[in-house]
Amino acid sequence: MTAFDFTPLLPAGLPPAAARWTGLAQYNFTGGNNDADEVPVDGLLAAADAVIGREGRNLATYNLGHGPLGYRPLRDFLAEKLKRDAGIACTADDILIVSGSLQALDLVNGALLARGDTVICEKDCYQGTLTRFARLGVNVIGIPLDKDGMRTDALATALADCKQRSVRPKMIYTIPTVQNPTATIMPAARRAELLRLAGQYGVAVFEDDCYSDLIWDGERPPALYAMSTAGNVIHCGSFSKSIAPALRVGFMVAPWAIMSRMLPLKTDAGSGALEQMVLAEYCAPHFTTHVPALRKALRAKVETLMEALNEQFGTAAEFEDPQGGIFLWVKLPDTVDTMKLYQAALKEGVAINPGPEWSTDKAHATPRLRICFASPTHRQIREGVAILADVCRREFGVPTRIANVERARA
């Protein structure tokens, strides 16, 4: 059959064409994949059997007859969870169920942003956010981070500069609790300062809270949404990291003034109802016992990863012990270009996320990479890091661990 040429029909501005799927790499350190052994399969099976048997006929009605915000029992569970864990006082009517946190981001962007607008985010930031900002054609101001997350002194400077140029940023996008990719946690005092600055300059805040369940000790500062008195915060969370990413269930908490403008943009006739039913049935009795076990397993894996990096790279790999999450943000010597490393390592069966894809400052991020430690096994972590180190030595002249130790002692 002759191939039809669609090219003349395509509108300008489309993203690049996708490559055909060829499967996961043998040593896959990319994406937000989680630990397969910690998916509560038996519990989800029992929940599915119970809730479908009890309410399955409601699948004949869009949104199960519970309205556009989503399945009411799941929203009831979330209202209780958010109060207990994040200090957020809300009701089920303040919560919208979405098809993963990326849909939440699309809805916020659709309601607030137009081409040429200005937004603020962390300098090292979630790739999905940066990609969407680029496609929208908005101006992005990256704020540097330290061990406590987004630096509010730099944020204050950026906001003052915007005001001097008669620019009003539409939104501060931040991941204050287990930041992606740096895994920092913003303390309460800095959260209060961020909110003060946002209120002073009349800027909305989008709080991406998708990793907050995965803090090792289970203790977290209050959510920005809980601390806000101005009503300018939109909160987003997800079950992708706490239960399973393939379920594609996230949620938003927002004042009705902005929720009512986002709802008309959610034109999918409702997020997957079966997933919502099963999650509500499972999470109400089991969430508080499931998540601590998941945290324990993830903590063990990041310890394996840090040990492997120290063994294979020595001081050539710099990183901070994360306080939670599923990612490690690693800096290699400045001679390493991780965009090139990605291609070379993939040929050896190792997939990594190169730093420039996760930063507003490409030069700063060139020698950095994000490693997801949740999905690979402990054996795969050790073997994959060893291969990655061999590639770095061969392609970029990264010294062996022994050379690094001798240099450090000199």
Structure in words:
Helices cover 42% and strands 13% of the residues. The chain is of the alpha/beta class. A seven-stranded mixed beta sheet has the order 2-10-9-8-7-3-4, sandwiched between helices. Helix 3 runs parallel beside helix 4 (127-136). The radius of gyration is 22 Å and the shape is globular. The protein starts with 26 loop residues before the first strand and ends with a helix. Residues 402-410 have low confidence and may be disordered.
Low-confidence stretches: 402-410
Instruction: Tell me the name of the CATH class of the largest domain.
Output: Alpha Beta
CATH-wise, what's the superfamily of the largest domain? Type I PLP-dependent aspartate aminotransferase-like (Major domain)
Strand order, biggest sheet? 2-10-9-8-7-3-4
Tell how many strands the DSSP assignment holds. Answer: 14
Task: State the CATH topology of the largest domain.
Answer: Aspartate Aminotransferase, domain 2
**Count of distinct structural domains:** 2
Query: How much helicity do the residues have?
Result: 40-55%
Measured by DSSP, the beta-strand proportion falls in 5-15%
Which structural class do you get from the secondary structure elements?
alpha/beta
Q: H/E element string? A: EHHEHEHEEEHEHEHEEHHEHEEHEHH
- Our count of helices gives 13
Q: How far from one another are the termini?
A: 69 Å
Sheet having the most strands: 7 strands, mixed
